[in-house]
Every structure is written in C-alpha cells, then in structure tokens.
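I hope you will forgive my troubling you with a question about protein structure. The matter concerns a single protein, recorded as an amino acid sequence and a row of backbone structure tokens. Please examine both parts with care and let me know of anything in them that strikes you as inconsistent. Thank you for your consideration; the sequence and its tokens are set out here:
***
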Amino acid sequence: MSKKIDPLLWRSIRLRLTFVLLGVLLIFIYVSYKIFSVYFIESEEYIRDANRFHNSNIKINIKRGTIYDVNGKKLAISIPAKTLYARPRAINHKDKAVKILASFFKLDYSAVFRKLFSKNRRFLYFKRMMSEEDAKKLDKILKNNKITGFGFETESKRVYPQQRLAAQLIGFVGADSKGLYGVEKALDLKLKFKGEKRGVLKNAKHKIIEFKNKDFSDIMGVYNEVTLTVNSFIQYFVEEELQKGVEEFGVKRGVAIVMNPNTGEIVAAAQYPTFNPNKYKEYPSKLWKPQYLSMVYEPGSTFKTFSIALALKKGVVTPSTLFDCEHGSMKLGRFIIHDSHPHDMLTVKDILVKSSNIGVAKIIEKVDSKEFYNFIHDLHFGQRYKLNVPGQERGLVKKLKRWRKVEVANISFGQGIGVTPLQLISAFSAIINGGNLMKPIFIKKILDEDGNIIKENKPRILKKIISADVSKQLKNMLKAVVSNEGTAPRAAIYGIEVGGKTGTAQKIDPTKRGYSDKRIASFIGFFPIKKPEYVILVIMDEPTISSYGGVVAAPVFKNIATRILKYEHKAPKSLELDDLNLNLPDLDKNIKLLESVRDIEKRLGINKSKIKKMETDKIKMPNLIGLNIRNALSILEKNNLDFEIKGKGTIYKTIPQEAVEINKFESVKIFMKEIY
C-alpha cells in the first residue's frame, strides 16, 4: 500500500516551489530589462565609457635629452631603435614564422611558439629595442617568406657611451624611457621628450596593447639637455685608481670624491665595485646607490680638523698651545679615552699631526658644548643639501640634550657622529678655502635643444665658517700631517705641497649594538697648499691589509692627485708622464672611455714577459714609504738592493728617495716608525 502525502506537507512544498518560480521569473525580468536597457536605452553612454577606457592619447617619447660632462663629452645619449610587435591571429604561416624568429634571436622553438600563441592574444611586443640594422634584416626575411602579422615601431634607446663611468651619478632609464636612478630620475621631466600625442588601445588592466599609428618619424616636440660638473677624464682616473686600491688592500668597497673647494663643484664621484648602466639588470641593486651620498659612517680622526678649527676660531687656543696627552690614556668619568700611541706634551699643531684623541678631547673642553653643536650644524652635518641628485642621506648628529661630557669628547675625534662623504668633503673644503661653506654642485646647467641656458647652478656660499686667517693656520697644520712626522707620508707628492688628514674609525655592529673589529680607513687631502684647487676624499671600507688611513687611503689620494696634475700639465718635472696621460682620446669617437695601457698592449699582442729586458747596472729607487719590512723585503730582493734598517713599525723615509737612480747591489737606508 502506498502512503498518502500529508496535505500540510504538500501545501508547504507547493508554496516553496511557487516562491522559487516567482523568484526566477523576477530575476529573468530584471536581467531582460537590463539587457534591453544596455542595448537600446543606455548603449551610447556605455560605448562612450568603453571608448574612454580603452582608447586614449599619450605623449610619445621618441627622444631624450643628452647628458654631458663639464667639457661637453656625451655621457648619456638616445639612439633610434626598433621594436618588433606581433598580431598572432594575423600570422599566416605559424610554423615557418616561429622557426624564423627562433633562428634569428637564437631562441628555443617551443619558447617562441608559447610566447606567440599560448594566451590567444591579439597583440604583443616580441622584441624591444632592436638595432635598426637587425630590424631591417628581420623585416626582409619575413617579407621574403611572405609572413604576415608582424611589424616594427620606432622607439628611443638610452645608451651610456662611457659604460660604467659615473654610473651612480648618471643613473639609468627603464624600457619606457622613464628615469629610474641618478640624474636620469631627478631630472626625468626635464630630459623627457615632450612630443605630440598619439592614440593607443588599452586592455582591461589599462595597459597599452597597441598604437593606432605606429609611424612616429614625423612627431614634433621639445626636450632639454643637462651638463654635469663632472670632468670625464678626472672621473676615469679616480675610478681606475680607486679600483686598484680596493684590490691591492683587500677592501670591501671604496668611495672617492673630488671637489673644487672654491666653487663646490663635484669634479668626480666614484665607488667600487660599480656597475654598467647599459646592463643595469645584471648587477645587484645595492651597486646602483651613490655611496658618496648615502653612506653614513663615523669619520674618525678626519673630524679632528673641525674640532680644532672651532677652538682656533673662538681664540681659546693657538697652534702652539700645549696640552698634556697623559701618555696615551685619560680617564673621563667612568670612561677611559685612549690614543693609538702614547704622547705626553703636544702642541695643538702636533695633536692634529700625530692625531691624538686625548689632545683633541682636551681642546674641545675649552669650548662650550652648545657652540660645538652649532658649529657642527653650520658645517651642514646632520642635514641634506638641496641637490638635483637622489639618494642623499641626512647623517646622524645627536640632539644637544643627549650630549654628556664623554659624548662631546667622542664627537671631537669623530666617534658618535654619522656623516656622509659629501658632507665631509664640503665641510673640509670650507676649512681650507678661506672659510666659506659652498653649496655642492653636481648639475652645472640645463639647456634647451638649441643650447640656450634654462638654468645654471653658480657657486653659492651657504655660510662663513671661519676667518681666512684661521683657514691659513689650519692649512699649514694639515701640511705637516703629510710630512714624515705625520700620519700620512704616503700621500706626499714630490715637488707639490699637499695637505690632508687621515681617519680610522671602527664600524658599528647593528646586531651587538656596539663597535665591531671592522674598520673604515680614510684620507682627505688637498693641493696646492696656498690656494687649493682640489680636495680629494678617499674612503676604504673594511680593508684587510691595514686599517690605517695613512697606509691604505693616502696612496690612492696620491695616485689620483698625480694623474690630475699630469692631465692639467702642472706636474713637476720629477713626475714622469706616462702614455695614458699623453694620449687622451676623444671620448665622442669612442664607445669606451680611455683604455688602460695594459688593455692597449693586450689588444696589440704585446707580451711584456716575452720582451727581453736590457741589462743595466742602474735602477730607480722603489717607493717603500708606508710599507712594513716584510713587504719591503720582497721589493728590495727583486731589485738586488742591500739595506740598513733604523727603527721599527712602518717605513716613513728612505735614503736615497723614491725614483732616484742608483746602482744595483747598492745599500739603502730605511727609517721606520709607528704610523697611525
């Protein structure tokens, strides 16, 4: 027997079905109404919105302004390039087309096929920034094989003819001609080509998928050009000597800046390791940053120059004022300040020359701490300069309320304060140029495409720091630092008066929140003494052979300064001119900047090891200054020289002097002392 359905249950089911059917009917009516409305009532409005979304006009950037060095040498240029695009649905012979592209670009067949046909796209860029020559070759091949569905667009390719030269300063641009780093980024809107608008088709993600008119040859527009203060030749010398120094002394990284102290113009700014902006994607991004702007470090003993400058300015000391340096150890509260080497009574001049921490700490005690803080602020430490170059850091200066007595002492000799290389060289320039803090300049001028100056950065004094008389006193004191009695005899250039200051600072370990055993060695020097024309700062981060600035940074300074003197034909006759300096090529005609003598010899097939040397009884006295006895011995043995040693530590003097002609097997005198 079949069971009867409960009437109440049946009524409930019918009621639910009725509601469901009614709901479906209402949805159907609503959807039908919306379709009718979209197609017949609001169609024009939707079409307008779709056209606005998918079709728009953009300015075409087929050019970009050139970047020049101070002498008009081209550092960044734009050249015509072609981009191959494809309309996959319009390709007639798919297999043949894939084979041709795979062969031409040396790609895998399956990779080309996937790129063209896997996503069922209407349009795609297959290869961007092809040379015009390659584009012509490929276009001819495609036409000869009667392949359809491909075409070429004209674009502008950014090229850096001097490759890695001043790479961090210049920066680079992306594929869409947008500046990403350096001057290219800072002056992107100035350098960009401001041309006519052209229609484009965009996809749902609002990305350009096709230009409606791909002939850009007749586009009219304007653009600007930029001239830097950098001198390409000096920049090259700095980069090469810095690289040599980093490799010779086992350094993690090196930084160097050359400034004109009288104008504030940056003549060269370099770091090593570096990168090639033509292939920037092949290098780690940390190499893109300009370390001379972004590196914040404790300056160490180079900062003593500013502490002594303030004391001289306030008249609380003279260069001959005596201080007891307490034989290398002084208690300050519960802290102890040490010197690298023990000293007793020293004049202010000798405190700077011998780099006594205790002496400088005692000098700064004679100055009110607020005045010291204000002087540091006046020198622009802890502040950014207003520059047209990105990547600049502020540095670190503690607030005055946190300055205890020990902090003041530490800051006086360059600990407990963070500076950037640019801040240090700018402040030091003010000390030796007569007392004027100059605004640093990287951008000389901006010009329109006709060469008319739109903006020019002229030398600008930001503040008078010290008097010309105090500046003169400091220059004479800094000259003694580079003597045999000072910490930087290896910076001395025979026949040229040079001054400077060494620095050796411990690095902070962020994990331990204290100092590590790693060091930063530096030297900042200038020449000539009476009216300085160049200031050069060399920083060697984590050297392994020696941690002293006088040993690892001073020789790099000397080599850079010597090459600048030769380049400007101001070198004394005692300095021999080498082939590289006598034959400076025209940078405009070379894709590479100056090849080194070694590269030229290699290219010409010259192998020095196979050249028979002429036998002679005469040799030139090698440069041993700054070396320890172990390193000096190998050089002396190579040259068959006997020797007599006086003292211990580091070589600071030899008889005869460097480069003097002597006989083989002659006995030379070597004088040594502790250099710090």
